[in-house]
Amino acid sequence: MHSSDVEKYLAVRPNSNISQLLQHGYEYTDAYTAAPSDSFPGSMAQFTGATPKTTGVWYDDIWVRDYYDAGSNCTGPPGAEVQYAENIDYNSTLLWSGGIDPANLPETLANGKCQKVYPHNRLRVNTIWEVVHSKGLQTAYADKHPAYDIVRGPSGTGLSVGYFPEIQS
Description:
Elements: H1 3-12, H2 17-24, H3 39-48, H4 52-55, E1 61-64, E2 80-83, E3 107-110, E4 113-116, H5 119-122, H6 128-134, E5 140-142, E6 161-164, E7 167-168
Parallel strand pairs: 5-6
Antiparallel strand pairs: 1-2, 3-4, 6-7
Pfam families: Phosphodiest
InterPro entries: Alkaline_phosphatase_core_sf, Phosphodiest/P_Trfase
């Protein structure tokens, strides 16, 4: 949540669980993310302990000089705008979009082969879920966007259960 969302929620529900939690928790009023910023780098900071410089995730919409446009089959000059938002869904006009459409993903050359770049492939460090899962424990995460596949970590195996309303995993 953004701080303004919390304020609005508390105004409507002053006796909520969140209200009670805030009475016993800490509010960091002098904490900042990298700029420009959105939920991708902010979430990655929480889930990896790393900065955008280390994770490789500065924003959900960036220019990557060694990626290729979706559907290009890695032909033409490299360099592509990479967006990991609703634009990668099968049908972003629907609440249940059908999940990530591989045809909408950017591409990169890996060992001489053209490969789709899923959001989790962008991350350069482990997530908390990959560490926990590597110890044989179960992990789970829920988010509203299929692009949050990124929390699976670079291996893509960090979650035992991931719930993204638009996809099932």
